[in-house]
């Protein structure tokens, strides 16, 4: 089955920070999980290269906007490797193929009767590239997101009849109550719709850096329309020689709460106007905070994803962000917090569990995992786990899904302490294995349960910890990532001994600056 998952496409007038990395990681978790389910995944990310801010920065620097975006887009593309992101395609909105598709789709929207010419006057934030409605204007006529003064702008424009979609959008929200998650964001979008929708500009004539309006070349399309359309235009050229529209649209979108209005209101209206299907889901994340404020370049409080990965590794950064900032909520992040979770959860809870389990099988059974059934108590604790995690992921509960698995990691740690296999080993008489009522059976069960438990959580944790789980599964001689195979007990006996395992999360971390 085709599955498309997207990140927001990033503005290129700033360098990437951990806030940008967050949505990439969430989308990557979903992409990897769906590959494990056997879906044909298209994980799409990219850069949003048009609009006034880019044109302004380029003018300040005395270079062309195209030169500026060519210089900056690779900085976002470069996050892929360090973050272990498995994105399949990186779209850039200055790509001529994207521009041609935008022109074609918006021409169709006009032919369908949803576009007219008029004059617009309103309060405009150049950083949001957005006119603000009355309810969105902060004190002193400033932008509620950027805190900068809004400017009064007036221009002849092409308009999109957003007001005509009031009723269809209300119906969408009534019929698909979980179309936007979490519910707090759904309610926010619905309240905005119920407050009354006004028509919005489709084009701008004050700038020329954008996608030309084909029927009026003095104008370019307003950057948000061009940007939103990336999610469908990319399907035409992401895979050479194929058009993935029929197989992969509609997509699941991962976004931040600051761009809710565009995705939850403008985007479905535009798709309806173009006669296209609506997205499957909008998964809306909160903000990463530093010192109680949104991490952002303008606040000067950004953490560099490349530095964080350099110090702790991609797995740890991915894990930390999703564990610390429950997806959907805001949460504070810091390198100290990252180090703490690295040491307690990754190195101790998971790393130690894996090392000890493999080491004990090697020591007590020459690496051969005993061919016995897993302990029924642990089997009960793991029952239904792959389906439960998949269900949470489908609902956008990416942090809760991780927590479900982590509770099992903790359960296995308690199991080691409860059964104390080292004591069972001492009680074992040489050659006693298999004798009725003898101790070896107990040790066999514990070892088999631990190894199979570690394998099960490794398969299920793969979307969050791709590198460590690959190492671990290789050491177990069980590299298969098939999601259903993540069920406890899904793997039978093997004649091959387990391999050696170097520490998954070494404790010799560099000192923090
Ligand atoms: O909004 N915490 O681009 P962008 C969490 N081009 N997420 C954060 C964050 C933080 N501190 N800072 C930024 C745009 N983000 C548009 C999108 S989509 C068709 C066009 C998230 O580069 C932010 O919420 O300003 C947004 O979802 C994403 O990074 C891109 O931000």
TrEMBL record:
Motif position, 'HIGH' region: 10-20
Reaction(s) this enzyme catalyzes, per UniProt: tRNA(Met) + L-methionine + ATP = L-methionyl-tRNA(Met) + AMP + diphosphate
Family: Belongs to the class-I aminoacyl-tRNA synthetase family. MetG type 2A subfamily.
Localization per record: Cytoplasm
Gene: metG
Its biological purpose: Is required not only for elongation of protein synthesis but also for the initiation of all mRNA translation through initiator tRNA(fMet) aminoacylation.
Top-level EC class: ligase
Subunit structure, interactors included: Monomer.
EC number, UniProt record: 6.1.1.10
InterPro entries: Anticodon_Met, Met-tRNA_synth_2, Methionyl/Leucyl_tRNA_Synth, MetRS_core, Rossmann-like_a/b/a_fold, tRNAsynth_Ia_anticodon-bd
Gene Ontology MF terms: ligase activity
Cofactor binding notes: Binds 1 zinc ion per subunit.
Pfam family, one: tRNA-synt_1g
Superkingdom in the source lineage: Bacteria
Boundaries of every Methionyl/Leucyl tRNA synthetase domain copy: 5-357
Subcellular location, principal: cytoplasm
Name this polypeptide is given: Methionine--tRNA ligase
Cofactor(s) the protein needs: Zn(2+)
Keyword Transferase tagged: no
PANTHER family registered for this protein in UniProt: METHIONINE--TRNA LIGASE, MITOCHONDRIAL, METHIONYL-TRNA SYNTHETASE
Keyword Ribosomal protein: no
SUPFAM superfamilies membership: Anticodon-binding domain of a subclass of class I aminoacyl-tRNA synthetases (SSF47323), Nucleotidylyl transferase (SSF52374)
């Amino acid at each position: 089955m085709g599955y498309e998952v997207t990140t927001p496409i990033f503005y290129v007038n700033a360098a990437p920070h951990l806030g940008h990395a967050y949505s990439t990681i969430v989308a990557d978790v979903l992409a990897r999980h769906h590959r494990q389910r056997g879906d044909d995944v298209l994980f799409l990310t990219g850069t949003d290269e048009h609009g006034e801010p880019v044109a302004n920065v380029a003018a300040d620097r005395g270079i062309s906007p195209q030169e500026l975006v060519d210089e900056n887009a690779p900085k976002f593309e470069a996050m892929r490797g360090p973050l272990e992101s498995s994105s399949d395609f990186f779209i850039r909105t200055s790509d001529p193929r994207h521009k041609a598709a935008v022109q074609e789709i918006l021409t169709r929207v006009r032919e369908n009767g949803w576009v007219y010419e008029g004059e617009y006057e309103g309060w405009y934030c150049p950083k949001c590239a957005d006119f603000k409605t009355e309810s969105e204007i902060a004190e002193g006529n400033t932008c509620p997101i950027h805190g900068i003064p809004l400017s009064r702008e007036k221009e002849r424009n092409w308009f999109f009849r957003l007001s005509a979609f009031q009723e269809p959008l209300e119906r969408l929200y009534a019929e698909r109550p979980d179309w936007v998650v979490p519910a707090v964001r759904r309610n926010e979008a619905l309240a905005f719709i119920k407050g009354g929708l006004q028509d919005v500009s489709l084009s701008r004539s004050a700038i020329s850096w954008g996608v030309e309006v084909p029927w009026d070349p003095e104008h370019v399309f307003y950057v948000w329309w061009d940007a939103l359309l990336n999610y469908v235009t990319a399907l035409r050229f992401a895979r050479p020689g194929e058009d993935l529209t029929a197989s992969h649209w509609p997509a699941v979108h991962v976004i931040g709460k600051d761009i809710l209005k565009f995705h939850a209101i403008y985007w479905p209206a535009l798709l309806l106007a173009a006669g296209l299907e609506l997205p499957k889901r909008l998964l809306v994340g909160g903000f990463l905070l530093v010192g109680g404020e949104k991490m952002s370049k303008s606040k000067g409080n950004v953490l560099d994803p490349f530095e964080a990965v350099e110090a702790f590794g991609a797995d740890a950064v991915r894990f930390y962000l999703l564990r610390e900032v429950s997806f959907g909520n805001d949460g504070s992040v810091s390198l100290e917090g990252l180090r703490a979770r690295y040491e307690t959860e990754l190195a101790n809870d998971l790393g130690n569990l894996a090392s000890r389990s493999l080491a004990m099988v090697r020591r007590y059974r020459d690496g051969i995992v005993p061919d016995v059934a897993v302990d029924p108590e642990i089997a009960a604790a793991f029952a239904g786990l792959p389906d439960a995690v998949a269900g949470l992921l489908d609902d956008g509960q990416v942090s809760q899904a991780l927590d479900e698995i982590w509770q099992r990691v903790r359960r296995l740690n308690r199991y080691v302490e409860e059964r104390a296999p080292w004591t069972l080993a001492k009680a074992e008489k040489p050659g006693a294995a298999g004798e009725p009522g003898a101790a070896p059976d107990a040790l066999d069960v514990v070892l088999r349960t631990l190894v199979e438990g570690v394998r099960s959580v490794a398969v299920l944790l793969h979307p969050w910890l791709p590198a460590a789980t690959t190492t671990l599964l290789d050491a177990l001689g069980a590299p298969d990532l098939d999601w259903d195979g993540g069920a406890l007990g899904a793997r039978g006996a093997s004649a091959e001994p387990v391999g050696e395992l170097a520490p998954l999360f070494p404790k010799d971390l560099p000192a923090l600056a």
